[in-house]
Structures are given as structure tokens and as C-alpha cells.
Amino acid sequence: MCGIWAYIVSQIEKQGVHKSLNESILYENFMRISHRGPDRSKFINLPKQCISLGFHRLSIMDTSTRGDQPFVIERDNRTIYALCNGEIYNHKYLEDYYGIKTTSGSDCEFIPQLYHQIGMEGLWYALTEGEYVSGEFAIIILDINKDTGDYIVNVARDRFGVRPLYYAKYSNGTYCFSSELMGIPNNHSGITIKEINQFDPGWTSYLFKKDGKMYTDVGIPKLLKYVSQSADLDVAKLVVKQQLELACKDRLTSDRKIGFLLSGGLDSSLVCAISAKYLKEMGVEMQTFSIGLEESTDEYYAKLVADHIDSKHTHVKFTNEQFIEAVDDVVYFIATYDITTVRASVGQYLICKWIAENTDIKVLLIGDGSDELFGGYRYFLKAPNEKEYEEEIIKLLTNIHRFDGQRADRGVARNGLEARLPFLDHRLVDTVMAIHPSLRMPKDGVEKWLLRESFRGTGLLPDEVLFRTKEAFSDGVSTVKKSWYQILQEKYEAEVLPKTAEEDFKHYEHCPPHTKEAMHYRDVFEGHYGAVSQYVIPYFWLPNQSWVGNVTDPSARVLDCYSNEEKTED
């Protein structure tokens, strides 16, 4: 997990302005994302092009300075700079296939050379469509013609936005790219932000500077379109099992110590149990971690799994007060006001903070992405038919980078750690989405039925966990008697209500808050990022209301398909 940053000045600005911005504003904003790369930082100015590039490194593959970025190559009359926040787990396959020689053990050093060989479109497809290639990335490549001074800035992001990237376009045509929203300069020096948002996953875009003028290409979207084919259950179970095992195995490659978040739910438990097999073969001790308030529902199941797979497990308990104290900081760190994302991010941030302060672990494997891929949320029990089920899955995968994907990255990266998500491996996603939805839908009141059946009878997990029903992370950290969402609602109803008039709710046109809790998150968010950033979420994450009725709270514990007597999961 690293931080990448770029500031591309339009032809309207003069070099002197760019220099002053570098001294007073640009470097300061670049350093705001330094937590993503605590090992080393590099900031360079290219005055002839009026461009600044920056990189914060968390060294995972080859911890020496040979792996520092940007990578720079000279070819013909071109100078190519490459920034990549990513992990290309089997990069050696690409290096061998294309005959690329590297000088470090970094998994990203080959990128500018491969770009030079096959161009940006070819590079994108090589990283995301190949049968033998696995990885996630956000990339910025600057390609300068040394003879003319013209250049192209190439920008790309992996299909599911596992690695973050934001952009801002200013009133004078200048652009800024940053791994996190907090790294983008606000209105300054007489120019204002015209547009700010996440760079869409699965896109490649270009900025051209030719003959002194700036041009842009809106990008080429890689839409999520799948054709369901196989309705053979035995084949489906086999390929799901094989691809998830491969995704976990690939993500165990690291020159730094690896740990695992284990809530005791199906998803994190599968990732841990599969990885445990490979780590034992490697002679490496597995360390797992869980978090909860007093009497949290996750604690029992996490310890059950840890004993089953023989991991060194740590369960960290926090008080209600510690959770509440972290809320405002978390809204800033994760850069969202989405209700369920904020709630779930508090626990993720706190456990990662504990891991960073008490261990030497730098990489964490986590179970996020499974619910979007396999329809694991409790409201999927209400899916009326295969068509609507499939449409909801594609919607969730398309927007995961704004919700659970965002939480998975920011809560971990804030603490100088790297998150790896086996369930969003593109080969696994393509495999699952090629299975007929009749096999993927809930059966007999059991969500993620196909995933569970794929590991039935293997002994990988206790049946008590393999068939444990879904529990959201933001719910599982608390008790059924009093959920985390109820603790938050009580706090903000009591503290905000006397000070807030009813008309304040009408102040917001986009995603207006409907509770005092939501109002608080929005106020904190805009206090840091301003109203111009409100479109970073398109809507509040909620269960499909056409299935479950007019539900306004994202917690599964408010749904009629949730029972207090049920055992619960991640």
C-alpha cells in the first residue's frame, strides 16, 4: 500500500506560479497522504512541463531503495515516469513473457517497460484480463517527448478500485491526482475546484499536452458485463474452490510480515483457513486478529476458527467510549459520510491501529468483497428472481470502491499497512459471474449458498462457522442486545437534537441526511473537504428497498429477515 500523487498545470498558468504552489501548497498536500507510505517519500518537480509527481512508499516487495518510485526509463526520444500504488502478485510471469529485465525485486518496476512495448491499453489488459496475472493497481504514467516537450499523462485503475485514486479538475484546466481525497489542494491562488471525485475503476484516461495546449480524453470504460453460462453445480463448486484458493495463495507473496483479520464470519474465516494451509507448508506461523466491544458476537466464532486452524490469535476489546471517540477522525480518514461505511470503519481502523502499534506486521489479508460477489447481505434472501439478483450483484461490484472497498483500504492504510482482498481477484470474479445465477442465489434461507457448498465436507472450517449466517462487521463488533448502530444513534440524538433545527436537514440537496447521526457525519465531512466534495458518494448504501420495503437504516438488524436468535457472522 503506497500513496501516489500528481499535479499537472494547464498552459494558462506560468511556471512561476507553479513554483510558488510547490513551495506553499503542493508539498504540504502531498505529505497529507504520507501515512500510506511510511518508509520513504519522494517528491519531484518537472519545471519544463509544469508537473509535480510524488510517491510515498510502504515497501512490501524488495524493501531496498531500488524499488522506490517513480520508476524512470529513457527510450528513444522519450522519458517515461511511472507511479503505481499496487501489487502485481505474479509479475514475474509478465516479465518473462515480454522479456523484461528488472534491477529490483519490486513487482511494479516492469510497468514502464511494458507500457513502452505495448501502450497503455495493452498494459491495462495485461494486468486485468490475463488468465495468469493477478493484481490490483492505481497507475499514473507520464510520457514526455524530449524533442518537443509534449507529453501524455496516462491514468488507470483496476476493475474494482481496490487501490484508491481521486482526481480534481480546476477552473483553469489544471489537474491533480491523489491516492486519497485529503491530498488534493482546495481552492487556491485564484483557481477553484470545478470537479472532484474518485477516478472510476476499470478506466484508462489521458491528458495530452501538444503544441503548448492541453487536451483530455474522457477515458475508455471497462464495463462489468458477464454472460452466465454454466449451470453444472459440481463444476461450479470445484472452480469456486480452486479460484479462491489461488487468490489467497497469490496474496501470500511478501517481503514483510503478513497478518489476517478474522471476525469468525464465513468470508474472513475462509481466507484464513485457506491461507493457513499454505503458510504451514512454508513453515510460517499465522497470526490472526479480531476486535469487539464487550460481549461482541464475533469473539466466540473468531476464537473457534483460530483454534481450528491453529493460528496465534489476538482478540482486542475496546469500550463504547473508545469507539465513539474515534468517529470524527474516521470520517476524515476515510473521506465519506456514508452511514454504514463510517460505522464499520471505526472497528477496522482501531484494530489496524492496534496491530501497527503492537506488531511488525505490514500486510493484512481480509475477507471483504465476498458479499458483493456472492450476494451475502441479508436482504438477498428477499431477491425475487434471478434477473434482479444479477442486477443487484453488478451494482454492488460496480460501486464497491465507494463503500466497503473504501473502508477496507482507508482504515488499514491510515495505519501504514496494506490490505489484500482475495475475493476481488479478477479471475475469481469472472469465474463466479460465469456461473448461472440459479446456483448463486440463496437457497433454503441461506445466503452465499454456493460459496458454502464449495467447501462443504472439506474440514477446512467447523460447520458451525461454515454455515453461520451473515452479520455485518459494524454489527458483529457489538452484542445483539445493543448494536453499535444503536449506540451511535442514541449518542447523536441526545447531543445534536437540542442544537439542530429541523430545517438543517433541508440544507443538503445531494444525499440529504435523515437522522441526527447522518447529519453529524455530513457536517464533519464537509468541515474537512467542503461541499464541492459531496459527490464522492452517489447515494447512501442501503438494502434494495424494492425488496425489503422503505428501510432507511443500513444495518441488517433492522430487517425482518434478521432474528435475534440466529447466530451471526462477518
Supply the CATH architecture of the largest domain: 3-Layer(aba) Sandwich
CATH superfamily of the largest domain: HUPs
Strand tally is 17
Subunit arrangement of the protein:
single chain
Please identify the structural class as seen in this structure: alpha+beta
- Taken as a percent bin, the fraction of beta residues is 15-25%
| Mean pLDDT across every amino acid position | 90
**Major beta sheet summary:** 6 strands, antiparallel
* Helix share, percent: 25-40%
Q: Strand order of the main beta sheet, please?
A: 2-3-1-9-8-10
- Rg is 23 Å
CATH class of the largest domain: Alpha Beta
Protein name: asparagine synthase (glutamine-hydrolyzing)
Organism: viral metagenome
Keywords: Amino-acid biosynthesis, Asparagine biosynthesis, ATP-binding, Ligase, Nucleotide-binding
InterPro entries: Asn_synth_AEB (IPR006426), Asn_synthase (IPR001962), Asn_Synthetase (IPR050795), GATase_2_dom (IPR017932), Ntn_hydrolases_N (IPR029055), Rossmann-like_a/b/a_fold (IPR014729)
Describe the structure.
The model is unreliable at 564-570 (pLDDT under 50). The longest helix is centred in the middle third of the chain and has 20 residues, at 339-358. It is globular, with a radius of gyration of 23 Å. The protein contains 19 helices and 17 strands. By secondary structure, the protein is of the alpha+beta class. A 6-stranded antiparallel β-sheet has the order 2-3-1-9-8-10, covered by helices on one side. The protein has a 6-stranded antiparallel β-sheet with strand order 4-5-6-7-11-12, covered by helices on one side. Strands 15-14-13-16-17 form a 5-stranded parallel β-sheet, sandwiched between helices. It has helices at residues 15-31, 91-97, 111-128, 233-250, 266-282, 297-309, 320-334, 339-358, 370-374, 386-399, 404-413, 426-433, 437-440, 449-454, 463-466, 473-476, 484-496, 516-529, 545-548; strands at residues 3-8, 40-46, 51-57, 71-75, 78-88, 135-145, 151-157, 166-170, 175-178, 193-198, 203-210, 213-221, 257-261, 287-292, 312-317, 361-365, 418-420. It folds into 2 domains: 3-221, Aminohydrolase, N-terminal nucleophile (Ntn) domain (Glutamine Phosphoribosylpyrophosphate, subunit 1, domain 1, 4-Layer Sandwich); 233-487 and 541-558, 3-Layer(aba) Sandwich (Rossmann fold).
